[in-house]
Amino acid sequence: MSVLVAVAAMGLFSCSNTQENVENKEVKTSTVELKEVTSPAEAIARLQEGNARYASDSAVNPHDNHMRIDETAPKQTPFCAVVACSDSRVPVEHIFDQGIGDIFVIRTAGNSVNDDVVMGSVDYAIEHLKVKSVVVMGHESCGGVTGAITEKEEAVENSKVDELLSVIRNDVRPYYGQKDSLDAAIRLNTNKQVERILANPEVKKLVEEGKLSVVGAYYNVHTGKVDF
To answer: Where does residue 214 rank: exposed (0-12), middle (13-18), buried (19+ CB within 10 A)?
Structure first.
């Protein structure tokens, strides 16, 4: 009988803690005001604020409910686009503490835009969704860049992985064979993608007019922090 009482007590304690956590989460959510983003500077500021919450373990997970699903079902209006790596340790919306409909996320191994499909996705975000900023985010310990600077250049027949590494390698050629320079190669790769996006005259014009920003960023998988 005493065992059953103990189990029941544990269940009540667990429910109490769960309810308390929910209430605390609701309080935290209500303290974060997600203002409409009207400029590139505001877009970056909102990402920085969200990342600060995430990195300090105080994320509120806004816009993550059925009400938001209903709001965004007819139309999406993300305030920015983020080109990130497909790495499973880089969950973009979580990193910036944003929710449904907030960020147009484009993910590919090595966060490379050197492909018509990927670049087309970037252009779509800019031309049709009217995002205020495009962020290309590289990250610590990127496997794509690691492979590009350490693997042999001889391609294996029919290997799409080698084709991918070859594309990335071309962008980080100065660091080929230099495993100790991985971080520098990751940052160079990111800068190359930013340059590639800005090579579009229409994109460059929007940037010059102050209607859009295209910036690079670096995510630390150990701390959860993003440096722009």
So the answer is: buried
